[in-house]
Amino acid sequence: MVVGNIILRLRGSLEFKCQLDSTDVPHVQKVISRTFEALGSQVKAESLVLSLSSSPVFLWPNKGGHATAGEISPNRPCKDLQQLIQTDDQESSRKKSAKKDKNNPTAGIINLTLMTEVTEPGVLSAPTLLRGSKKHHLLQTTLPMDCVVSVLSSESISVVCGTLVGALCSQLGDMEKVALRHMKGTALLIPQPFHFLLPAPVGLVTVVYPAGVPDSQLETQRKELHSLFELPDDRPYLRRANALHFPDEPYKDGYLRNPHVHLNHPALENGKPYLVQGVYSYHHYMQDRVDDNGWGCAYRSLQTICSWFQQQGYVERAVPSHKEIQQALVEVGDKQGSFLGSRQWIGSIEVAAVLDQLLGVTSKIMFVSQGSELASKGRELANHFLSEGTPIMIGGGVLAHTILGVAWSETTGQIRYLILDPHYTGAEDLQVITDKGWCGWKGPEFWDQNAYYNLCLPQRPKTI
Amino acid sequence: MSKVTFKITLTSDPRLPYKVLSVPESTPFTAVLKFAAEEFKVPAATSAIITNGESVTLWNVFLKHGSELRIIPRDRVGGRGVGTDRSSSSFSSKTQ
Q: CA–CA separation, A309 vs A315, rounded Å?
């Protein structure tokens, strides 16, 4: 997001309703196209109204951006709209006392809702009823409109309104294409918009996917888009899981995401940090009503890694529970049946086996005969974060940890490890977790210098 | 009956001793691990075989990467202050 830009997000429902006199495909397609065309006209009509969320303001974009609130005139810059938004009084305490928050969340987003004026002053007329006795199908559904535009905060309201209406029309066009492409007989799949933040210079794009069709069946569509946006063809960017998560929407599952971004990275002479790429969730002791204090740390590190693969779009399955992890190990023959339901410890080899069995992910194992040797693994770890960027599980000296990054200086040999500690037993309190070092940078003395360690380095599957 | 020959190194020993072993192709890989562990006098239950960085549990991984294997001690980890003492011995026994 470029500084000085505001994102406007417009959401709402448009009713899609049409009458089909026959079920033959060309007729159905023609009617659907006509209905989308009518919606396009509806969106360009003067009766379209945008409601500014959490404020008393309404805008008429097709009347030159005329608004209800007196102080908003169409020529004012759109950033003035932000001042009218009533923010939540109960700011979560972690926002107030959080460290220098690099991802300034709500500041740059304006949410709007789509509405239509239903009544209008007009000439009195008598309603007409037409009655026909022919059999027909009624096709009716609600289209979930969700448009996002990025504009300069100095842009005038009237121009921004025009941009939003344009985005709506364009989305209707995309929805029509998707609806026609994925139709099955008279069943219409609802087209759903997803927003993605692609690497520069592409930026923010919106893609429409048909509801109910899993990602695995949409590979052709993704290949076309990868080609259009010149994206690499060996890692996912456009799976539903890759969709942009807007900072002003809390995650519903309650896990913390990427607590490490709130830390200050160590400044090493001639060194730099090499970090995990993408998003993971922090899994640790006592979560999910499982009391695994004292035995579950490797399981939790494995869950963190699974959450990474899920959120980067490689797998659709949910993060496995302790039971599912144990079940997988029995299935591959690494453990006997008596292992199920036990509190037995596992290590990196088991983590690699489960990643393979449940997620189809292969891992590299790095064996280090003494903890002191880890100090010399800077280059290898840095290369891992550059090429794969996946979280690393490390086991040894009776403890498991997750390595999220390394800061290393080629010239001085100084090294620091970014550690996510699964032994934390408290609540999802970002403040405590960062202050007390449950997610934090550690030096080489953190490792047991005499114990041997195994590291599990998960490899990204080459797929989109 | 054809045999598979490979070189296997004990990485937990700083002298990196190795042996060249030959087993019938039909041997299940778990038996190979057991055999190799016995040769080196380390416990099979707490060992694992890796090659080219990948953990080997099946012949197909072995065949992909060639015939240099390494036998490593497994880490078994769970938490603080539970079970094993943190001695500097190379092989920690399983707890619980």
A: 6
Rg (alpha carbons) of chain A, rounded to whole number: 27
**Nearest C-alpha neighbor of A457 from the set A357, A346, A380, A370:** A380
Question: Which run of H or of E encompasses A355?
Answer: helix A348-359
Q: Is A237 exposed, middle or buried (0-12, 13-18, 19+ CB in 10 A)?
A: buried
CA pair distance A148, A273, nearest whole angstrom = 33
pLDDT in tens, A289-324: 999 999 999 999 999 999 999 999 999 899 999 999
CB contact under 8 A, B48 and A349: yes
Residue A274 DSSP one-character state: E
CA distance B25 to B9: 20
Q: Shortest CB distance from A396 goes to which of B30, B50, B75?
A: B75
3-state secondary structure of A187: strand
- Cβ(B54)–Cβ(B42) below 8 Å: no
Report how far apart, in Å, the C-alpha atoms of A126 and of each of A47, A98, A130, B88 are.
21, 63, 13, 94
Tell me how far the alpha carbon of residue B70 is from its chain's centroid: 6
Query: Is A297 near chain B, with CB under 8 Å?
Result: yes
* Residue A266: how many other CB atoms lie within 10 Å: 17
CA A164 – CA A169 distance, rounded (Å):
9
For residue A307, which phi and psi values (nearest 5 degrees)?
-65, -35
Query: A-chain residues within 8 Å CB-CB of B83?
Result: 345, 398
Structure tokens that stand for A128 in this block: 């007409």
CA dist A390 and A305 (Å) reads: 7
Burial of residue A293 (CB within 10 Å: 0-12, 13-18, 19+) is middle
Using the structure block, give the residue that is written with the tokens 């086996």.
A353
- Cα separation of A287 and A300, whole Å? 9
Catalytic residue set of A: 297, 421, 423
State the count of interchain CB pairs (< 8 A) between A and B. Answer: 108
The tens digit of pLDDT for each residue in A31-64 reads 999 999 999 999 998 889 999 988 888 888 888 7
If you search the block for the tokens 């940890």, which residue do you land on? A401
Q: Is the minimum CB–CB distance between A461 and chain B shorter than 8 Å?
A: no
Three-state SS string across A119-172, please? Answer: CCCCCCCCCCCCCCCCCCEEEEEEEEEEEEEEEECCCEHHHHHHHHHHHHHHHH
pLDDT digits (tens, 9 = 90+) for A250-303: 788 999 999 999 999 998 888 899 999 999 999 999 999 999 999 999 999 999
A168-191: per-residue pLDDT in tens?
A: 999 999 999 999 999 877 788 999
Nearest CA among A461, A451, A462 for reference residue A347: A451
- Subunit contact A369:B12, Cβ cutoff 8 A: yes
Number of DSSP helices (H) and strands (E) in chain B, helices first: 2, 5
